[in-house]
Amino acid sequence: MNLPEEFKNNIKEILKEEFDEFINSYNKPHFQGLRANALKISAPSFYEMAPFNLKLIPWTNNGFYYDNNIQPAKHPFYYAGLYYIQEPSAMAPGTIIPINYGDKVLDLCAAPGGKTTQIAERLNGTGLLVSNDISASRAKAIVKNIEILGIKNAIVISENPEKLKQYFEGFFDKILVDAPCSGEGMFRKDSSMLKCWNSDSNKEYASIQREILKSAAAMLKPGGYILYSTCTFSEIENEKIILEFLKDNSSFKLSEINAYKGFENGVLGLSGAKRLWPHKLEGEGHFIALLKKEAGEITKNKYYKCIPMNKNQSIMLEQFEKENLKITFERDQITVIEDRAYLIPKDMPDTKKIRVLRSGWHIGSFSKHGFEPSQALASALKKEEAKNIVDFAIEDQRVVRYLKGESLDVEANKGYQLVCVEGFSLGWAKKTGNLLKNKYSSGWRWQ
After folding, report:
1. Strands across the sheet containing 54-56
2. pTM of the predicted protein model
3. So which residues are the catalytic ones?
């Protein structure tokens, strides 16, 4: 690999006698990983039923390496949301940030959603997850990923962090800042990152990182934690950013991180931070620093007020529940936005002046035909929560036909059916006449 000379000089200054070992790591294949979705299946159960060879990633309890010659995104279990494909080193921040049930968590630079989905699994349906990315087009990937994995307690927004701090001062218990960076840790995996790098990249990104971290600090509750991470190796974007932040923010302290094999101490005297080097472990590399804010006065915030259903909409939803579900939705958590019904997470903040792409769990829409359930509703439902089910075995060719959007000739009751594979939900279909009419989301279909 033709690495820039200035990049190599920077690395040699940091690693010294380990430099050659680091450079030789670029001649090896990069490592592929996936993470079992704890919201749908336990890691041991997934390991037992996985259709390919897996090896546990040491710093996770549900992340696995898989062989480079397979395509896990081309399997029905991927469409059922049983796992998320993620680079192994990138699983470290979402593992290390201290999450408790009921926390209000902000993933400030969240696209495409790998760490967001990991945090959601650890919240296990409790609390609130706010996933933000300044790019609305990139944030749309977050929406799809939280829906396919069956996440109910997340809202997705697209705003500049500087604007967000005006509305969320002292609001969040935990904040993940996986900052935009020069991506030096992705050179082996993605050659486009190498082409974009130049001698000024580190300083340019450091300027952005500095401002993002400043905004994050303003949005954190006293006693809360910020997990700062990058997938780059530069001191300018890593240790120097943290040292400068600590100098300017006396209410913050660097917290120790439990080190796993291959995790190295940060440089420049910042031993509490950790570096994941590609010549030390099976991953592309990462930098992680955990910052704790000292105790202090809690800020009062404004909360979201739901837009309630009208009488006709309420009747439609009640009829759908009666005919199709074994669960009912809490009416005081439902808000209606342009005929779309969302189940709002408790403690959702006031978002009236913020660009919101997804307000909680989108359960469906109201039309002249009644309540029409969403793909997100199907993805988050368990088989036992639906009354009418079509459950295919994994080897049944109709699974792929369904995922491609085809109608099927299946024996079933009239009305909506929750289509499953091996007991895990895929989407909706509706029995009309002799056919099962396909309702699987057109944007998600098997290509």
Report:
1. 54-56, 63-66, 32-36, 83-85
2. 0.96
3. 231
